Amino acid sequence: MPETRRSRLPWRRRAIPAKPRPLLEHGALPWLLAVAVATTLPHAEFLPRWLTLVCGAALAGRAWLWLKNGRLPRRWLLALVVIVGVAGIGWQYRALFGRDPGIALLVFFMALKPMEMSERRDGLAVVMLGFFLLLTHYFHSEDIATGAWFLASVLLLTATLLRMYGGAQPAREVFRYAALLIAQSLPFMLILFLLFPRVQGPLWGMPRDAYAGLSGLSDRMSPGSLDKLILSGEVAFRVQFDAGLPERTRLYWRGPSFDSYDGRVWRASFLSTSAAERKPARIEAAEASAVDYTITLEAHDRRWLLALDLPLLLPGEATLAPTLEVLANRPVRYRARFAFRSALDYTANREEDPRLLRQALHLPHGFNPRSRELAEAWQREFSDAEKISAAALHLFRTEKFFYTLQPPLLGENAVDEFLFETRRGFCEHYASAYVALMRAAGVPARVVTGYQGGELNPVDDTLTVYQSDAHAWAEIWLEGRGWRRVDPTAAVVPSRIERGIDAALPEGESLPALMRFESAWLVHLRSLRYRWEAINNAWDQWVLGYDRQRQHETLARLGMKDADWQSMFLTMMAASGGILLLIVCRMLFRRSKPVPEVRLWCRFCARLESFGIRRAPWEGPLDLASRAALESPELAPLVRRAAGHFAELRYGGGRRDHLRDLRDCVKDLASFRPCRPGGKPAGEKPC
Amino acid sequence: MDLTEFFDAAAQRMFGRDDERLPIVLDRHRVFILPTGAGVLYCVVLLTMLIGAINYNLSLGHALVFLLTGLGLVAMVHTFRNLFDLSITPGRAEPVFAGETALFTLHVDNRRQEARRSLEFSFGRNRRVLLDIPAGERASVAVPFVTARRGRLEPGRVTLASHYPLGLFRAWASPLLPMSCLVYPKPVDAPLPTHSSSQKNSGRLGKSGREDFSGLRERQPNDSPRHIAWKAVARDFDHRPLLIKQFDGGADEELWLDWNLAPDGRDVEARLSILAGWVLAAERERCRYGLRLPGRSIAPDHGPAHRDACLAALALHA
């Protein structure tokens, strides 16, 4: 007693040691190493080479130490490595904060942490860091493969926690249990994904490197700016037409147009983008040529949207620029969906702002004298602008022009050299030369960039437009008829417009094979590829493109019209609560049904109790039978029979008829009447 | 008192219920559950990840966070289930000397079709022991309690806790089991009293008790390995249990271990310790000995049962 009393004093209480922290089991380490590898590996490709090597070496070294049961390195050595590594990362990225250096630091810590693990909570730290690193994978890619990796990694991390907290057990069982846990949490994921009120990010200013690596059209056109884009296999946007697909030759997706030329680079003039004193564009179009469609545009960090030439109805958050391209209110930084209505036959800006027309006639002085001369000759010869244009196209068509993505370099008088010497180039060369000729001949003209064509996937009827469909064409303004599209490339290689860029390219010059399967020998794979593309599209639309707008549409379709965030939140809570309740009921309050023979035997024993024979918990059937024979001889044959059947069913190779016999025994016992008072008090059941 | 103990005590105070019917079944009134430190950390990590996913508009990031949220909820149910519906029957606890560790045996029945893993049993701050029980089976576990003083030890509530499967939650139950264990006084090595107030000749026995071989008997767990008849065992090792050589001698000599013989000037506990040491020594010397305490005496005898009776008398001495 004295000890206890003393231990209540506060300063003595501390002397009693608390329970020691649980240590990390030796057998749990391979799991944690696997976690470290699985969560850092996808980053390897984006990290500086030296960091990848250091991390790989650290993990391999830890695995070796584990195998050899070796000593872990000393703390000061680890601290030194950490300091050097962090300094290296800081030097590499010129920063320690921000997205990429942050990821590099996390990967580095993840690789080094196993070197100093001894307690279970160190293992926990690795797993938590692993969860976080999983998230950072999605900065690089969010495709289906990443999704699969995501599920596999969560399975591994869950299994690792199971192993850490559950002790040694066969790996198969660990994975099976982990799979069960994840399967049970999938409904929650679905509900939360569907109903969690989506907020359009960012919540705060994004680091400057957040949108690095987005590709798309540029805000200027200089020689060679488009060919890099054309060689890229990335998707630019996908289109779903409400009705049928228009003819391929009319699929001009209008991007930025350029009306300012300095002899080398085409740019948008101040006039074409300024919102001030803008006259609204006047587009006259026949309703018959109108098409409705929805574009899912990939992020490209620019304001322009790619509408079919020319848009009649715009999505709410966009406006039509004076030069007829559609501009969103802010740069497109996330995959987004826009609904349009466009007219394929139109008359645009019959009356044009004279300043714009003046801009569309401007040519820098002192460049390209030969083409100027030619154009002026045309101007004298033909009074009509259309005839001048036809003459220019005739020139492209009849002279020996080649379509190639590898044109020779052009010098100072780029248009002259292209028209009279090299004669090799692709859309930007043709458009640029044509517009220069038109301007020299006194016809207002401008360059329009965008995409032409696209590829229809028959599986889900989606038109996919790749970056390689990037195109440049021209527009001329005709008195009284407004702007009209002219595509000089089509004059040279009609197949570019009719069948796509691959058809236009000469032999031996082609796009990467993976991008264009149709290069002859893989034709039979095309349907497979279309299917895969369709799945990818669905993934992009429904998983990656699930934003606020999508959410509202989906919920409206599910019957929640105009859901605000409160009602969404409440529904989400209610639904998750329901699922949780279901799981609780299934797991906690569902007793497993005993096998039939046990159920029958229990019923038999329960009835036997009314005859004063109570089965002790430890008593086997045969023991009970022999005891019953002593206590109540007239019951003995019945009990012996039942016990025999039960024992045969339970412990022998019992058959179906034993079960029937046992059931009969239970019935017999129910109808049994003791005929002479003796074994039990006779009062209850008179015979 | 750390946080865990605080929550244990608080939960017991607020919702605890003592139903002394055996076996004790851990129903939903007995099992408590709270997130652990790891669980709180998990929450913080998830929140951070959610903010990151929103900020960078990562759709897969949202999916990841939501899946992990579901995983946390499911883990809660599974942790609860790991304890739920266990049935506990107290077993026996062998007497120990003060300062030694008493082991309380518990029989735990898993009546469900799922295995239970990593159940932690402990008494207060005593060391915890882990137990796995396969589906539908019964397992026994010896839960240690470090004794401090003699007497009848009632260990109080046993804490049954589980962090399995993910360590994010701790489910626990603290049933009060009707168990006790006799704690003998800590024996002090002291020379046996040479002179005694015994009626017959004094009980110093020397070596005679070890030399008169009287026969063989089967070995009991308590026997000294020195007395094993190795030769007899070696003759027929496969078919015969270990045998013990039995010796006679000294049986007719009686020794009284008297409270008053213990050195004066010590407190009660010290005297009891000395007496306990004497009992052990006398038993080792294989003589007949009796115990005389104020208000109680035990007639001379020998053998383990007698020794235990003497020690129990010492343990329970008021």
Distance between the termini of chain B: 32 Å
Question: How many strand elements of chain A?
Answer: 21
Residues in β-strands, percent of chain A: 5-15%
User: Biggest sheet of chain B, in brief?
Assistant: 5 strands, antiparallel
Oligomer: heterodimer
Q: Order of strands side by side in the largest beta sheet of chain A?
A: 10-13-7-2-19-18
Helix content of chain A: 40-55%
Give helix % range of chain B.
25-40%
Radius of gyration of CA atoms of chain B, rounded to a whole number: 28 Å
Specify the structural class of chain B: alpha+beta
Strand order of the largest sheet of chain B: 2-11-10-6-7
* pLDDT averaged residue by residue of chain B: 82
Low-pLDDT runs of 5+ residues of chain A are 1-16, 513-517, 677-687
State the low-pLDDT regions of chain B, or none: 195-209
Strand content of chain B: 25-35%
Question: Top keywords for this entry?
Answer:
heterodimer, A: 687 residues, alpha+beta, 6-stranded antiparallel beta sheet, 5-stranded antiparallel beta sheet, 26 helices, disordered N terminus, disordered C terminus, B: 318 residues, 4-stranded antiparallel beta sheet, 7 helices, 17 strands, 30% strand
Task: Outline the structure in words.
The complex is a heterodimer of chains A (687) and B (318). Chain A is an alpha+beta fold and 687 residues long. Among the domains of chain A are: 26-169, no CATH class; 596-670, no CATH class. In chain A, 48% of the residues lie in helices and 13% in strands. The longest helix of chain A is centred in the N-terminal third of the chain and has 25 residues, at 171-195. The model of chain A is unreliable at 1-16, 513-517 and 677-687 (pLDDT under 50). With 318 residues, chain B is of the alpha+beta class. Chain B has 2 domains: 3-183, no CATH class; 208-315, no CATH class. Chain B is built from 7 helices and 17 strands. In chain B, helix 2 packs antiparallel against helix 3 and helix 6 (268-284) runs antiparallel to helix 7 (304-315). Chain B is elongated and about 95 Å long. Chain B starts with a helix and ends with a helix. Residues 195-209 of chain B have low confidence and may be disordered. The chains are: A alpha+beta (687), B alpha+beta (318). At the A-B interface, helix 1, helix 7, helix 8, helix 9 and helix 22 of A face helix 2, helix 3 and strand 6 of B.
